[in-house]
Amino acid sequence: MIKLSKIPTKASKGTSKDDIKIKTTKLVQEIGHLQHALYAESKQALLVVFQGMDASGKDGATKNVFSKCGTIGTDAYGFKRPTSEEFAHDFLWRVHKLSPAKGFIQIFNRSHYEDILIQRVHNWIDNKQVKVRMDAINAYETLLEKDNNTKVLKFYMHISKERQREKLQKRIDDPKKNWKHKTGDWEETKLWLEYRKAYEYAINNSIIPWTIVPVDQRWYRDFTIATIIRDTLKNMNPQLPLLTEEDKQAVIKIQETIKT
Amino acid sequence: MIKLSKIPTKASKGTSKDDIKIKTTKLVQEIGHLQHALYAESKQALLVVFQGMDASGKDGATKNVFSKCGTIGTDAYGFKRPTSEEFAHDFLWRVHKLSPAKGFIQIFNRSHYEDILIQRVHNWIDNKQVKVRMDAINAYETLLEKDNNTKVLKFYMHISKERQREKLQKRIDDPKKNWKHKTGDWEETKLWLEYRKAYEYAINNSIIPWTIVPVDQRWYRDFTIATIIRDTLKNMNPQLPLLTEEDKQAVIKIQETIKT
């Protein structure tokens, strides 16, 4: 049972920022190469889920960790408030169709988990409904892993209350960050504890495990995530497909019929 | 009237590769900054269409020119043979829904033009139908530009026959490129002249103009495309939205109600 209050939001003391940054650059490069092979192979997929409180660095992680991945082959989707059409369907309807095809990396910035987080915290659904949805989420993620060679990685962006406030304030004070400001985010901070409880439920009741990422320091956040993505892709071991002798002979036959 | 045989597929003699590469790096960086502003602003969009013969470097251009753009905010879609569901609809049905939302850059690797290229060259449609489709394409692109603040940039990747053959052969000879090989591409090379005629028709009958990109040299290709993308984005002049004094006062009121 994970208890978020017991887990640090920072790197342990003595961790060298400079070392970590050098390592991260290397990891990000490796992720780029592995993504290329994944795309060329087209037999496996990767779904990356980023969840966390407002200002916990989901956008930044998406930008940095996948910066060497191809635009073709890597998609990121930010889930917003559902449209009225989406609301008229079950909560997985809009999510399912965004699952990655084989060969692809799909990044979810927020995800199907919102439907047992924001909806629960505001009491738009009761606990019985939360359980129904949790079961549906487990079934969906298991389907991807067991039936479509899709590895599912879920990251909880673990930020401290103080750091969150600082970052939200910066969106007001720094004109370059004004565009990220939403007045409603400040209202939501009042529900900090309720959100944490809802996250703990989701994390503790998931079949596919989560990684709790300490995100108070951006450099340590990127390192933690990049390490897991790199290790996972390496383990998936995507292979560039090769032509057989037969394939090559087939081409030669066609080439002979081509007038120059 | 554009006649492709009169247009060079290479940089003019004396163009310095080293100079061009330095300039391209700078352009690509600028495109990254401008894309960030476009996304933050969320009032305008950019649709980039890459069309060209097999092995003309559409993938490479996508990868290189947009390498500093955010994964969120930049999407690339490669059009393949339509599914049976797609075939059962008009040819723009699958295309229209992929148009970029405001704030986004959408890259089409192949596009709606295939429906007056491959389909025409193989005589799957007659000239009357080609005209109907060309009109529909013009209407669609005009709609995006005039009614949804979407700038449409179309690049014809102009490769020489010799260079195409070399590149297709490399896909057979270099194991790292084997995954890109399709035997059918060699069959299509027999239709070189027919394709060129079909491209000339599309280019000469488009309302929104094309850029003919000399692509025999990869470095010159990337430079040509990056220059136009940078100039276009700069001209669109996306602005980071700023908070007003009123916005700031509204937050302060909420902050006063938050217990720490």
How would you portray this structure in words?
The structure is a homodimer of 260-residue chains. Chain A is of the alpha/beta class and 260 residues long. The first copy, chain A, has 11 helices and 5 strands, in the order H-E-H-E-H-H-E-H-H-E-H-H-H-E-H-H. Chain A has helices at residues 17-41, 58-65, 84-87, 93-96, 118-121, 127-147, 161-173, 183-189, 192-204, 218-236, 245-256; strands spanning 45-52, 74-78, 105-109, 150-158, 210-214. A 5-stranded parallel beta sheet of chain A has the order 2-3-1-4-5, with helices on both faces. In chain A, helix 1 (17-41) packs parallel to helix 10 (218-236). The longest helix of chain A is centred in the N-terminal third of the chain and has 25 residues, at 17-41. Chain A is globular. Chain A starts with 16 loop residues before the first helix and ends with a helix. The mean pLDDT of chain A is 96. At the A-B interface, helix 2, strand 2, helix 8 and helix 11 of A face helix 2, strand 2, helix 8 and helix 11 of B.
